[in-house]
Amino acid sequence: MIERFETGTLSLKMKQDNIKKEFIDRQVLTFSETGEHEELLNRHKKILSLILKYSSKNDYVLDIGCFDGKILKSLEQEGYNNLYGVDFSEAAKVSFTKSSIHFAPCDIEHQEISFKEKFDVVILSDVLEHLFSPQSILFDLKKKLSKDARIVLSVPNAGWFINGLLLSFFPSKLFLSTAFGPWGHTYHFTFYNVKKTAQNLKFKVLELSGGRMDNYVFNSGIKKMLFEGFLQATYSLALIWPKIFSAHIFGVFQNTNMKLTEKERFELGD
């Protein structure tokens, strides 16, 4: 009876993992087929600027959820040599076949990162919101970090003022939301809980900021013009009051030598 239960539980878990992977692969394929995002997105440019600001070209850099490696390849052009990426999407596997960037397939929620190196910079660009327990992943990641490693991250801002309007009055338009749209997000961040997660794991927060939003919704016509006009009009506000007006949160954490206990692996509330 117990063996049947354990077998059934394992089978269900494998099915759930397969569904998640298939969803991500379909999403990546749909996103890629538009042809609108072959260049770096605005949020990628912001991530890249933060990496350049808080690292050196000799640092060991790991991009978790690297997809096709746009950020890593940009760093390679900047003269970075020790570049590593992990991702579990099928599309990612073929993006590094003729590259000097080290790549390994990995689902970080279920697998250990296979690289033996200690990393000075870890990139988590729009990854944490797809995880069941982001704090647990960051906790486990500690053992892969060098002494003063920096984590450079971006997540959608659930506190963006448009999200409140859409959730309350226009739920049929939630595809406009970076946080609550149909993107497979399982966790929703605000500036407060990004900072709280860093504090829980005893990271030092070097920077928390907003940035320019990307137009990934409308490809043509009057809607595109109006939406991009809105983004342009609110960009300065996103820099001044990012908690309200920035659709994304950008952060840089620094590792410390403060010890963690197992109870800090999970965020259980105050």
Written account of the structure:
- 40% of the residues lie in helices and 17% in strands.
- The chain is α/β, with parallel strands linked by helices and 270 residues long.
- The protein folds into 2 domains: 1-33; 41-265, Rossmann fold (3-Layer(aba) Sandwich).
- The chain has a 7-stranded mixed sheet, sandwiched between helices.
- Helix 4 (90-93) links the parallel strand 2 and strand 3.
- The N and C termini lie far apart (39 Å).
- The model has no long low-confidence stretch (mean pLDDT 88).
Outline the fold blueprint:
Blueprint: H1 2-33, H2 42-53, E1 60-64, H3 70-77, E2 82-87, H4 90-93, E3 102-105, E4 119-125, H5 134-141, E5 145-156, H6 161-169, H7 191-200, E6 204-209, H8 221-240, H9 242-245, E7 248-254
Parallel strand pairs: 1-2, 1-4, 2-3, 4-5
Antiparallel strand pairs: 5-7, 6-7
